[in-house]
Amino acid sequence: MGRAVRASGPHPPSFPALRPHFALAGPFRMEEAPTKNVGAFGRKRIGFATPEHPAGRISAPRRGMAPRKSGDAVHVGRSGRVAMVIGVRDKLFGSSGQAGFTLVELLIVILIVGILSAVALPLYLGYTSDARLAEAKALAGSAMTSLSGCVQVKGSGGNCVVSEVQQRVGLDTAGKTYDGRWLVSTAQLSVSGTPPALLGTITVSGVAGKNTDGLSLAMFAETSGVTLRCDTTSVTPPASTSSGNAC
Question: pLDDT by residue (tens digit) across 207-221?
Answer without folding.
Answer: 999 999 999 999 998
